[in-house]
Specification:
- The chain is mostly helical.
- It has helices at residues 2-36, 41-47, 49-78, 81-108, 114-124, 133-145, 190-194, 206-245.
- The chain has 8 helices and no strands.
- Residues 164-168 have low confidence and may be disordered.
Length: 247
């Protein structure tokens, strides 16, 4: 009976580690996609140090989970006590780091308000000055998501005009409609847009557009994170049970 129980734990641990292996592969794939994606995310990530760091953290976490799942599978199948102990300690550290990150994200979510982004835009945005990291990032966001400002074009009324622009009245050209929503996309009518004709402008604010775009994915990511934490916890329990059961 004890042998059957040990065999059951061994294969259950292999199964959980296989899911960790797949989760790591998915994180690795998403991280690579965010960095090399040609539709605008690459520019946003490269221009924003926080996103740039986050993308590489995702890559590192994906690689670690990928390796960890592989080691856990090998330790379970081969019943190697050293691999199992290494697996347990490593996954415990990752579990605590992920739990801490989730708690910090929950605590600081209040800072990412509409008012915060509006104030930052009015203070730091320099319109079409793409040599400025903040402005270049905002321009990439507005072009990619076909939106304008945080709340709408009215956000730019307090932003100074560029001295060499003869057309620009209120909004930057990143708010103008394009046939294809990328920097290479042709303007529908740039001159009419910049002189204030609304039908050639993107009128919706980026806060609402991005919130609507990612709302489903946020809940999906939260559910996935909870699932990953649960799998890691069970994997640790099975690793210790298998470790103690191996003679």
């Amino acid at each position: 009976m004890e042998g059957d129980c040990l065999s059951c734990i061994k294969y259950l641990m292999f199964l959980f580690n296989f899911f960790i292996f797949l989760g790591g592969a998915c994180l690795l794939g998403v991280g690579i996609w965010v960095i090399v994606d040609p539709t605008g995310f690459r520019e946003i990530v490269a221009a924003n140090p926080l996103l740039f760091t986050g993308a590489y953290i995702m890559l590192a976490m994906g690689a670690m989970l990928f390796l960890l799942g592989f080691l856990g599978c090998c330790g379970a199948i081969r019943e190697n006590k050293y691999l199992l102990l290494f697996f347990f300690m490593f996954i415990l550290l990752i579990f605590l780091a992920e739990l801490s990150a989730a708690i910090l994200a929950f605590i600081f979510r209040e800072n990412l308000t509409r008012e915060f982004f509006t104030e930052e835009l009015k203070k730091h945005y320099q319109r079409n000055n793409d040599t400025d990291v903040f402005s270049s990032t905002w321009n990439s966001v507005m072009i990619t998501f076909a939106c304008c400002g945080v709340n709408g074009p009215e956000d730019f009324e307090a932003v100074p005009y560029l001295p060499y622009s003869s057309l620009e009245k209120a909004i930057p050209e990143a708010c103008c409609q394009r046939e294809l929503q990328s920097r290479e996309g042709m303007f529908v009518n740039r001159e009419a847009c910049l002189t204030g004709i609304e039908r050639f402008q993107n009128r919706q604010g980026c806060y609402t557009v991005i919130q609507n775009t990612f709302e489903t994915y946020v809940y999906l990511a939260g559910a996935l994170a909870i699932g990953v934490l649960a799998i890691e916890m069970f994997a640790m329990i099975f690793a210790m049970c298998l470790f103690r059961g191996i003679q």
